[in-house]
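Researcher: Please predict.
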Amino acid sequence: MSIRIATFNAENLFARYKFKKNFDPSSGDGFTINDLAFDIFDETEKQITAQAIQTVNADIIALQEVESLPVLDAFNSRYLAKMKYKYRILIDSFDPRKIDVAVLSRHPITNVRSRREERNSSNTAWLFSRDCLEVIIKPNGKEIMVYVNHFKSMMEGREETKSRRKEQVDRVAAIVNEHWMGKGYQGNFVVLGDFNDYPEAETALGALLNHPVLENVVNRLSPDNRWTHFYASGNEYRQLDYILLSTSLSAANANIKPGILRNGLPFRADKYEGERFPNVGENEPKASDHAPVYMDLDLP
């Protein structure tokens, strides 16, 4: 059988502090989700974000920058009901912005493991900025394991943040080895997400991009078509979002290329000359500053 897998940084998928008129926030208990009290943060942007997800039409999609499982459930119910994402998972991390990684799936999620409690080597902070969320999914009796990541951002500078990002990357590579080395790395597994670094020059991603049993499938596209993110301040078009396939999956899908959906990017990203979704603006609103990456896979 064939399934479509995707990753998408949905950029601030929040439902916070947007209280409806004539509602006193002190009247709530702070925990109950009350649709009469608040609404999804920025309605138009969430509609465009949903359109990007609908257009990708993945069977399994890893998301980054989601506030919480209740927000994911509300977003799914309101905007994605026709997509039939019956299975959803998100585990809160320790990110100070309260953004997490998540999975939406049409197929049963049978096992989940979080790495949120792991510490860095000096035991001064949590290792992962968000999490390395391990999820086993069973499409029609077959099994695929996905490792969803959102590594340390380059907000304070690429070089300044490299060491922390590299420690996260190295740990994910080690987790893959722990799981799969004893099996000769034979199995259906994917490492994916927003890696917050590009492959060129002094990348922090070496342990994954150079791993002998993982393939960065975006490299199957022409070099000029590999960018997934537009950084306006530097006018940079880079790959920050990745799907890394195991040897088994790579061999079984050797002739398949991934897709990158850029219709939800703002018009300022003028390297993309194709159509935009309705209501996309010059800067905002937009689906995200990232483009979803997706690929159809036959599961051996």
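Model: The chain has a mean pLDDT of 93.
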